[in-house]
Amino acid sequence: xxxxxxxxxxxxxxxxxxxxxxxxxxxxxxxxxxxxxxxxxxxxxxxxxxxxxxxxxxxxxxxxxxxxxxxxxxxxxxxxxxxxxxxxxxxxxxxxxxxxxxxxxxxxxxxxxxxxxxxxxxxxxxxxxxxxxxxxxxxxxxxxxxxxxxxxxxxxxxxxxxxxxxxxxxxxxxxxxxxxxxxxxxxxxxxxxxxxxxxxxxxxxxxxxxxxxxxxxxxxxxxxxxxxxxxxxxxxxxxxxxxxxxxxxxxxxxxxxxxxxxxxxxxxxxxxxxxxxxxxxxxxxxxxxxxxxxxxxxxxxxxxxxxxxxxxxxxxxxxxxxxxxxxxxxxxxxxxxxxxxxxxxxxxxxxxxxxxxxxxxxxxxxxxxxxxxxxxxxxxxxxxxxxxxxxxxxxxxxxxxxxxxxxxxxxxxxxxxxxxxxxxxxxxxxxxxxxxxxxxxxxxxxxxxxxxxxxxxxxxxxxxxxxxxxxxxxxxxxxxxxxxxxxxxxxxxxxxxxxxxxxxxxxxxxxxxxxxxxxxxxxxxxxxxxxxxxxxxxxxxxxxxxxxxxxxxxxxxxxxxxxxxxxxxxxxxxxxxxxxxxxxxxxxxxxxxxxxxxxxxxxxxxxxxxxxxxxxxxxxxxxxxxxxxxxxxxxxxxxxxxxxxxxxxxxxxxxxxxxxxxxxxxxxxxxxxxxxxxxxxxxxxxxxxxxxxxxxxxxxxxxxxxxxxxxxxxxxxxxxxxxxxxxxxxxxxx
Length: 734
Ligand code: NOJ
Prior knowledge:
Elements (H helix, E strand, L loop, with lengths): L2 H10 L2 H7 L1 E4 L19 H6 L2 E3 L4 H14 L7 E4 L12 H6 L3 H17 L4 E2 L23 H16 L12 E7 L18 H17 L4 E4 L3 E2 L2 E2 L4 H11 L5 E3 L7 H5 L5 H11 L4 E2 L3 H11 L5 H17 L12 H7 L3 H12 L3 E5 L12 E4 L24 H4 L6 E4 L27 H13 L3 E7 L18 H13 L3 E6 L7 H6 L2 E4 L7 H9 L66 E3 L3 E2 L3 E2 L4 E10 L5 E11 L10 E10 L4 E9 L5 E2 L5 E2 L3 E8 L7 E6 L1
Parallel strand pairs: 1-2, 1-10, 2-3, 3-4, 4-5, 5-6, 6-9, 12-13, 12-14, 14-15, 15-16, 19-27
Antiparallel strand pairs: 7-8, 11-16, 17-20, 18-20, 20-23, 21-22, 21-26, 24-25, 26-27
Helix pairs in contact: 1-13, 2-12, 2-13, 6-7, 6-14, 6-15, 7-8, 11-12, 15-20, 17-18
This protein binds 1-deoxynojirimycin.
């Protein structure tokens, strides 16, 4: 519809109808859908429901077409409804969880995954996805690290903008066929809850917020995402849904966002719980003044905005502004021409879980696995070897992570099924996934971790017999699907005792242990590192995950993932991440000389496995860093170069990473920050020059006066295969 026509339509709307656009009802008001938050008694009348501009979590082409038809018939101006849902790492063809996608260091992989998710969800009638989540995540206790792409602002920014492009396409005028509008979340700082407990208070300095947390959101805004979701947390003691500075000044004025701001589930109502509003009425007022356009799943707007305007407490212009933005979004989706958009039962059949989608998910999964250890080249397994595949994940179907709420696990093959043609691979469960008494988590589609073994000793004995009679053991360990994700924080990051016992006992009968780790977060895997010869982190790899594992375990595909988030030594270290500040007393490793330095008495400062780390089936050598000059003018660039050689016997891919350290600045700078990386594939014996261009922009930061500038002085450039590389050169910025 042309803007003038849309304006005409808009002018016909009553205030009540405009407010209706700002209300999002959960699917259960239409007797449908998953519940992804507390079900409030919203006290809505039938009229409120009939005027609500959007609904979340209802899916299915025919179902949504019927809902849309009935809704539009009733609506006084026949304005279509928006259908939103959490399409995170896939709709029905599930890709690896976002944290795993981060480990691919491959934005194109994330873009393709998002494009496939969009195609399937669009066919099922969805218009908007609540993705990407660009929350910087450095605390493994927080369950939602699984939904992030990790601890690095630069990598997160690349991944978030790639996902926006994948969902929305590159045509900035419309959301074309087969695409969804993307909703960036959770703005802002949601990934830094105190003590890793979901929804908890966030304390970030203004500088840390700007340096580390805002950049990825900004990249997604620059990529054109249509919506932004406010976060549940406070920042500087102000909940985001009431933070005018954050929403109007930073998001709109500074970042230039002109789309729709939606609250998270019931977040406006929760301003009362936060203790900054006396009731829903005050909460609605704070949120609308702050700039929240849509109230998700709370009664605040619906029950109060009308009287707030009539009583002169909220200017009507704010309602106009918000309702207009929502109509513009509906128009961008083409809903005034075709209110069903791409909903089509025939397309659902043709596109969902198509061979092409499954093949892409399989390739993506293989590219996200991270090989942490591979002593004596235990991996890949050879065809003639007799393998005992043991553990709670050996025959488990829940491989998609807790945010794949529309997935049907019955289409996911288990590892046992994926290996079914291979008589040399035999199976035993060995133990349950959780210890007796561990909490079971009902969430989303109510996938609940299985019950403990009734006869744990018999299960263990059977597994040990198999282990003893095998050349190698593949031990599949990890946390259940629903132990990460929303409201799934953990204070202990160790594997359940039953799994640790299985590991210990297996190691007694067979030293050749390959552990495959299924998890939604970095875990404390010290015993695994000690007892297993090889460790492959599979995360939650999605619909085709087990098949992708057979590809990597057998060497058909070499692993190439790198950790997007450090694995802590133990939980006491969290949050642990590579881009730390030096402190005035950095520890150099010697307890006698560094008595009064920043350290623990009982554990190392370093994580068990650092950011950027990951092996493959070959080895690489990286030459010393060379720079084309020692001094850089601000208007100039510097070329940093290494030669990478494949020194092993098979083809492999290395991710060469560049980190920069600003040695002396007006505020303390991280010991290193990743500014670029390149994935390089080399055949055995092959070598290649890898060149990076360092620009002045890469050296900018928020200085003592909060100006985003670079400062003259000395910089170190590190280039290597992970964030701990000491391969460096030095230059000066004039
Ligand atoms: C709450 C979650 O925080 C958010 O990420 C999600 O999109 C909404 N619920 C809707 O399900």
